[in-house]
Amino acid sequence: MAKGPVSTSSDNELPFPTQEPMADERSFFGKQKPSGPKAGTALPASLAGQEHYHGHRERLRDRFRELGDTALADYEILELLLFRLIPRRDTKPIAKALIERFGSLSGVFGAPPALLTEVKGVGEAVALDLKLISTVAHRTLKSELRSKQVLSSWSSVIQYCHAAMAHETREQFRILFLDKRNVLIADEVQGRGTVDHTPVYPREVVKRALELSATAMILVHNHPSGDPTPSRADIDMTKVIIDAAKALDITVHDHVIIGKDGHVSLKGLKLM
Prior knowledge:
Blueprint: H1 25-30, H2 54-67, H3 74-85, H4 92-102, H5 105-110, H6 113-116, H7 124-143, H8 154-165, E1 172-178, E2 184-192, H9 202-211, E3 216-222, H10 232-246, E4 251-259, E5 262-265
Parallel strand pairs: 3-4
Antiparallel strand pairs: 1-2, 1-3, 4-5
Helix pairs in contact: 3-4, 7-8, 9-10
């Protein structure tokens, strides 16, 4: 621990009494008499600004270690992560501000980096790290679909699509291409549009399916508004793709619309 400024008194006393190191600096300060450092004496750099959160970090880690994630609120899970990304600041206000700004933990990880940096305390490096963690989660969910019959792992399909698309600020049109065993061949974003429209070209959709030797497809797109209710344009476009694919013996199993808090299946609604 670095020493603070040395007093000018005749006995050359240190600003703080010499003690054994303690696990929690807040206890150290709590036991000192108000007359400890002389007025105007700066705290050592190793302690300045730490007393109000140093012990809190250890207690939060202990709760997670002993009780698991169910014992923590979403902002506390985010706070634990931010301990690593922002080591020398109180991260509780930052975690709470992120949850408040984006509505949920998934909203934080789904937010674009530019919006993340609008939250006080979040710089470009932290925003990039949050997006990296989000990407790892997406890849993990996607890997669970590999070499599996997609139709028998429907909940995994929905979880993956929701993680990948629910918080996008523009519409995306995604296609899951399947082989004759309904195993995933490819997952591709075919188009990106505006907040309420994505151009889709049925000819290009079918052409790509033929290139991949796919025999079936699942269509997916998101509604940035959050409401997954299909529009008339969504229904009409789906029918056009189904007709074009059918002529080439390619099956369209479903068209799923992803919203922030749920999804809608056109097949489930008997709209295809």
